Here is the input.
Amino acid sequence: MADSPQNSPAQNITPDPLLTEPELVSPDVALTPGPPAGRRAAAAFIFFTVTLDMLALGMIAPVLPRLIEGFLHGDTSSAARMLGIFGTIFAAMQFFLSPVLGSLSDRFGRRPVVLLSNFGMGLDYILMAWAPVLGWLFVGRVISGLTASSIPTAMAYMADVTPSERRAAAFGMLNAAFGIGFVLGPAMGGLLGNVNPRLPFLVAGALSLINGLYGLFVLPESLSKENRSPFSWKRANPVGSLNLLNNSSMLDIAALLLLGYIAQQSLMNVYVIYADYRFHWTDRTVGFSLAAIGICTAIYGVLFIKPIIAKIGERGAMSFGLIGGAIGYTMFGLSKTGVLFWLGIPLLNLMSFTWPAAQSILSRKTGPSEQGQLQGAINSLRGIAGLIGPAFFTYIFSRSIGPDAIVHLPGTPFFVSAAMLLIGLILAQRTASQPQPVN
Here is the structure.
């Protein structure tokens, strides 16, 4: 059942007169008036900001290993270890700094954090393109982890400018932005990298700087001064930010998100090597399959999340996505040919309904002065998954193939991911059975 807007903490929020208008509190989302033009423009900017951030990250993905390998004089083994270090430091920056930036946005507003991130990311990519030695490239990766930590602020901005009953659809659009960047970024990076491995960094930097300049003129502040909260290191550190989720009405959903994010790491770390081992796919086929994942994410986010949530509610959509995701991962693990694997992609991507529905429920339980802290805490959960997932799933895969395998079952990482989502489904049902607070 969807959360009732009458029971939402968001109804006690003092609206920002520049960005909000009186809202009709109705269970029928279709009866709610559309947002004014200023709010739509701001939401569109945030959508494009997230898209460009993901596009830039995706563009450098295919060329970063080659650039590292070049600095190490073609030593592939050392390059692989260094790439793992780069990935770990990026996840660590997300874990530690996301709550800091989220809390800063609760104190000083969303606009300065979003814009500084755009400019910082642009300059960082230019630094990485220029890097004369590996150490400079490493510094650039650290900075990119910092600037990418502003995505929670973008999420908080969307929560500020979106009525509470529409937030799941808004978060779904941002999920679609992730998908679009996931599809276009690696493709563009591969094409540009064939010209020069440093060119994708320059293009990514230019896009970020242009977006920042555009935002200077079109992006209003979304958080009114009366809804801001003092900055506190007690809340801004990862442990302090996660304490926001440590209550009976939010803990199960937070645990569900963490399990889902960890399960997602099997795609990021085992997908390519699994497809090569089991199906002997070429790089081109792997690229097409990854593009299909991104396309499904974008289509679900743009076309289906809003009507599905209107039909079955946020909690129903959350469970629907978990069931689909578990089936998709199971199909991946069972596939002995590429056909079943391909058929599993649209089912796996039903998880696109879980993320925005869960975030919307958490957002409705959080006051306006804590939206940045909330999104920082959620991104810290992603950081935890990024720290755990790579070693966890690659170890499972290594122990499920080869002569020393405990049981020869190459799909084990995906079966583990499916089990995590089923545990998440149990948590979702527990959450649905809890009485809702009455304000």
Observations:
- DSSP finds 16 helices and no strands in the chain.
- Residues 1-36, 435-439 have pLDDT under 50 and may be disordered.
- The chain has two domains: 36-216, 247-439.
- The longest helix spans residues 283-334.
